[in-house]
Amino acid sequence: MNRDEEYMNYCLALAKKGIGNVAPNPMVGCVIVYENKIIGEGYHHKYGESHAEVNAINSVRNKDELKESTLYVNLEPCAHFGKTPPCSNLIIESKIPKVVIGCTDIYVEVAGKGIQKMREAGIEVIVGVLEKESLDLNKRFFTFHNKKRPYIILKWAETKDGFIDINRNVIANHEERSGKQSHQKESCFNSSNLRQTQDDKSRTNDNWITTQQSKKLVHQLRSEEQEIMVGTNTALNDNPQLNVREIAGKNPLRIVLDLNLRLPKDLNVFDQSVLTLVINYLKQDKKNNLELVRIEKEKDVISQVFEILYQKEIQSVIVEGGAQLFNTFITKNLWDEARVFIGEKYFKNGLKAPNIHRKPSTIEQIETDVLNTYFND
Q1: d(CA 12, CA 75)
Q2: How far apart (Å, rounded) are the C-alpha atoms in residues 184 and 343?
Q3: Alpha-carbon gap, residue 181 to 324, rounded angstroms
Q4: For residue range 250-304, what is the model confidence (pLDDT) as tens digits?
Q5: Are 3 and 72 in contact (CB under 8 A)?
Q6: Which of 41, 53, 76, 225 is catalytic?
Q7: Which of 5, 104, 131, 140 is the most buried (most CB within 10 A)?
């Protein structure tokens, strides 16, 4: 690794500190080097706040040294007025003679304009140092702008014998069971009702597949993404909170596919602790942090969900169940990454885990669990 790559690698490390906090902006880190010594550094901390280049330039004590320095940044400096002024303007005003960039910015308001502006001002600009690593760091940002949809991460846990759940009926019909009428609960917005075929014991951790350490890692991974999605059966059967209570971090927004509004209102996903979107065919409504979003029954569900998330500038989503939803994304080839935790348990029968027909890109041991990560090329 040469000197330019070393400094760029440091930019990438700085940029990663903003994960989970800067979206819909990209993660950016910046260092300023004078006579082979770093005299300034910074990264984009939070959406709406100063960009990495601004923080790095502001950190330099002797501003006269900027005139003989090189600025390193993993993404092309912006050239437009957004929530903050253009970084390329500040670089020019600071009379920095040389700028080294990891990769260009595909966002239409930038897209080479920052590079052009600096070169026209007489700055030497080098582009493409650790370009692959720079592109990979902001894969969510680039996927969103290239494909007009969020970066999709599938995540599930399975047993050693390939099951994600035991055998159980999740949604009952509206007939009597064992000669008695079952107790019914109101849905989250007082529409139709949903009956359960099992008692509250099914919502405990009796069927938990992985270790506590894996659970903690899952919560860390959740904190790094903007939104988390589940289907009807998973919301009912597991009653998940879909938050990051195991760590100190930011809760993702929640999206629940409840097309016929059958879920009972006492589920954790409806506790209004964070904004929750309920995708359905029946109603458009909003009460505090709970929003019903109506889609058309005649059109593809996932395509409509993508459009909703694109309009809301959601760049990344973790899909955490259930099997039908996983298989829909896999069949349609609408996924970018899959994280599969394999625990020590055996269920012998039950609900089969989805199958990704490729070898994992990485394999990680977490106590007695194994985490296989797949990337969809």
Answers
A1: 10
A2: 35
A3: 29
A4: 999 999 999 999 999 999 999 999 999 999 999 999 999 999 999 999 999 999 9
A5: no
A6: 53
A7: 140
